[in-house]
Design brief:
The protein has two domains: 245 residues, Beta Polymerase, domain 2; 56 residues, Methane Monooxygenase Hydroxylase, Chain G, domain 1 (Up-down Bundle). The protein has seven helices and seven strands; from the N terminus they run E-E-E-H-H-E-E-E-E-H-H-H-H-H. A hairpin with a 3-residue loop joins strand 6 and strand 7. Helix 4 packs antiparallel against helix 5, helix 4 runs parallel beside helix 6 and helix 5 packs antiparallel against helix 6.
Length: 325
């Protein structure tokens, strides 16, 4: 770190020295450059007004500063000189936020320090989980160990969200009756699964790229990174399965609704078939014309009513015999 910050920048969220213990250090670089053991972790708000000055003050090249402050990112890992640039995505657990609106995390990792960057109002709770572990006494041995711990926390949050989606689908599958409003809920589940998978697939590739490009990984670190890569692969497969389950449930729901509508139309058709000849008779004998039979017979209405009732019974018996019901 060649430059020096004269005062604590607003973009700096925290600056930690991690050795045998974790301690806060001044982000003015008054004592940052004097720290020779262990490594340092700087967490920065990338869209603050002084974020670029802050990152340049930490000795970063302009290309790295631009990469950490960029607005749109997709998960990937790039080797850049002696350092590694990593973009990750985590579940959005902020208040009133949709979990599938995943939060971007930018990491710059060297052998001496880790710089993580996030945007305002886009707090990544996995980072907070990692810092809480540090506060409780967990001390990672290197920047790569800290990165792996962050990746693990991100995967844990993703696992919780995937489990919630699986439980929601299980509830739908257990329902004996489904309503039309359930179609909207299933559509939301499909959209959540698709939105999360959109970033998990490249994130899996990013973790695999870290394994390939970083030759300084120890055997234990390589094993942990491979384990997290396998977890991401499993979550991608689970989300694909969730989408397929949601599609099957939607098709089943549509079939149920179509069957209910068809049954109602069928009943109406049968009722119409019964009352159509009766309506014909009432229309025929209701004509006000001369010569209509029965007009002079006092019991004509009774005979007609009995005839219509008998006709209705005959029609019903015929329908049962034909198994139309």
């Amino acid at each position: 770190m060649s430059q020096s910050l004269k005062q604590t920048p607003k973009a700096m969220l925290w600056a930690l020295h991690i050795d045998h213990e974790v301690s806060a250090i001044s982000s003015t670089l008054g004592d940052i450059d004097t720290v020779k053991t262990g490594f340092k972790w700087f967490h920065v708000q990338s869209d603050a007004k002084d974020s670029e000055d802050c990152l340049q003050g930490l000795g970063l090249q302009a290309e790295i500063v631009d990469a950490l402050c960029t607005v749109e990112t997709r998960p990937k890992a790039i080797q850049f000189g002696a350092g590694m640039l990593v973009y990750l995505r985590g579940i959005n657990c902020n208040p009133d936020a949709d979990p599938e609106d995943m939060v971007s995390l930018r990491l710059w990792i060297t052998k001496d320090f880790v710089i993580s960057a996030r945007r305002k109002d886009r707090q990544l709770f996995s980072i907070q989980d990692t810092k809480q572990e540090l506060d409780k006494g967990y001390v990672p041995g290197s920047p790569l160990d800290l990165m792996l711990n962050i990746i693990t926390k991100i995967a844990n949050r993703i696992s919780e969200t995937v489990d919630v989606l699986d439980e929601e689908l299980s509830v739908f599958e257990a329902l004996d009756k489904s309503e039309k409003q359930d179609r909207l809920k299933l559509s939301m589940v499909r959209r959540k699964a698709a939105a999360i998978r959109r970033y998990l697939a490249p994130q899996r590739d990013a973790l695999d790229a870290i394994h390939r490009i970083n030759k300084s990984l120890s055997q234990q670190q390589a094993f942990e990174l491979r384990d997290q890569t396998d977890r991401m692969t499993r979550y991608v497969e689970d989300l694909d399965l969730a989408k397929e389950r949601a599609i099957v449930l939607q098709d089943e729901l549509r079939n149920r609704i179509a069957e209910q509508q068809g049954m109602r139309m069928y009943v109406l058709s049968l009722v119409t078939a019964i009352f159509l000849p009766l309506s014909f008779l009432t229309g025929l004998f209701g004509m006000n014309v001369a010569g209509l039979p029965g007009t002079l017979e006092p019991q004509a209405f009774t005979y007609l009513a009995l005839s219509m009732a008998l006709l209705a019974v005959v029609l019903l018996v015929t329908m049962f015999w034909k198994r139309w019901f």
